[in-house]
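Batch manifest, entry 17 of 40.
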Amino acid sequence: MSLISAPEFQKRLADLPLATYQAGQTVFAAGSKTGLLLILKSGAVAIIKEAVEIAKVVEPGSVFGEMSALLGEPHTVEVRAVENSQFHVADAAMVMQDPVSLLYIATVMARRLEVTNEALYELKSQLKEGQPAEAVSKTLRQIEELLNDGGAAPPGKRRFFVKR
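Output type: structure tokens
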């Protein structure tokens, strides 16, 4: 089975209903269990955990609610619209039975994990080497930037850390 691109996946979404959230409106509340997957069509959202914004996502095709659906657990973060945003709305149980959709979601999650692993490695290396606070702060800013694109940079355009 070949990998599916975001545009290919979005073609599959054409028949799904759309939901619009206004800036400031909660899309998913931490601790809730919706049974939905939302796929960003346009706009921007903040990912918030315990009142700390950990990422801002603007990439069309980004999927929200996938971890809750895969693990059968409540949402662990709040997703809040930071500008007017539109989403394709899918029943998580139905999507989880579609091999093409599952492959897309798995690819997105794998990229996110790859970015997180690289960032954690770099940060731990800097701390172990006793790097100055400025270098560690720069790495933390890079991690934030990577989280903001959701790890969605195409393979040829991924940003890797450079030790300072």
